[in-house]
Fold:
Amino acid sequence: MAKLKIAKYWADGCGGCDVSLLDTDAKILEVAAIADIVFWPIAVDGKYSDLEAAKPGEIDITFFNGAIHTAEHEHIAQLMREKSKIMVAYGSCACMGGIPSLANTTDRESIFETVYHLAPSNDNPRGVEPQTRTKVPEGVLSLPMLYERVKRLDECVEVDYYLPGCPPFYKRVADVIDVIASGKLPPKGSVVGAKDKALCEECPRERHEKKVKEFKRPQFAQDDGKTCLLEQGIVCVGVATRGGCEARCINANMPCRGCYGLLPEAMDQGASALSAVASIIDSNDPKEIEKVVNQIADPLGTFYRFGLPQQRVRI
Structure:
């Protein structure tokens, strides 16, 4: 039987998703046994021209990680969609927008102003900014246009499967490899490598009645190591997040950040998490409630750290 042809691409992201595939250790050898990697810029030699030369549908499966933030990202996403039978949104950035999508709270001009003019580490007396086209003696150099808004992969192309996580947990990646090897793929549009129940269902910590009078940032809290973090006043969004990661952050005494995305029945992950947090404030006094709520640092980055493009509630 002919080997599968697999491709992987890295758009606007940190590179952790590429590492997560390698973190499967010996499992990666099973990938080599059933598939040939035909395009993966970070790991194997290949050019865009190779991708362009491929026939439509020639690639069996593409794992696309990273959000869409530039014209190049969108162009390659469309090209890989054309050349691939199956497109997998790999990781939180591709699935939901991820941390790069927090840029959607501002605009391109403000981002350039901060990065190229106001950053204290800059040495840019001429005020130079990136240009899409720059003439030099050797010819014209080009850079892709930075979009005003960061987008999920499925806002640009049709996505067949979603594998969330920042990055996806290596055990779940291995599970997905097994499914691919078996040829028994789930229905299109499925979230793979994650559970349909909240992370709380796999959290090992003890849970009691949740009533808090203050919220604390993890670095300023005295965690007892066994009680639900939310009960201790440490904002944890596991209650509104899919399980599947085996509570790795919580097992490291850090709260869930929400990287596995919203639950199947939820419309807005941040709103669900915010509602859960609001419900445990132990007070009926509006002024005291406001004081407690104001203790939550960076509400937007806390409740919408990974899914801002999916946001339905304005904060």
Residues 4-99+149-182 form a domain with the Rossmann fold fold (CATH 3.40.50.700). The chain has eleven helices and nine strands. The CA atoms of residues 283 and 289 lie 6 Å apart. The chain has three domains: 4-99+149-182, 108-147, 199-310.
